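Shipment paperwork, digital attachment
Item: protein structure file
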Amino acid sequence: MNKERKLKLFKELASEAHACRICEKMQDKTAVLSELNGTIFPKVFFIAEAPGRQGADRTRRPFWGDKSGENFQVLLDSIGLEREEVFITNTVMCSPRSDSGANRRPARSEIRNCSLFLKRQIELIDPRVVATLGSVALDALKLIEPHSLTLKENAATAIEWNGRLLVPLYHPSPQVIITVRNLEQQTRDFSVLRLAIESAE
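Attachment content:
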């Protein structure tokens, strides 16, 4: 598919996502999906959990404007990847909030509702390498193509999934870095992603 055709279809998909109001608790939110998500010819297709309140929901650019975004940038830099070489999306395109306005984990129904948008992004962009950031994103892929992977058992390993290389990674949020997988460990994980990208080129 040529670049112009692919870009046209991507813009149509983004418009559909922006118009979606199916999730009752996110009807006042707008999907974070546009050319700010990255190139539609990426070296790696990242999937995170959801747009953050201070990050992507505010800036409209995934992993931009908050501490998770700063950590993600450090990890990209560690393997020499530019933002212009990747595409970043989320399990749910809109920002899930609690009653107090804080970030919250997306509900299973919200993940299901958004899974077709995620599936269509993967099919259209057709990346050779997919990297999930966190367990929510890894589990969400089961709705597209079943797998039995877990973050605990399969983190930082390159596995064939849906005709692509899948690399499950931890989320670079401050909470995860403090309690589960520090930045040094995540940097080592990203070196596996770099090898997967090189093997796919």
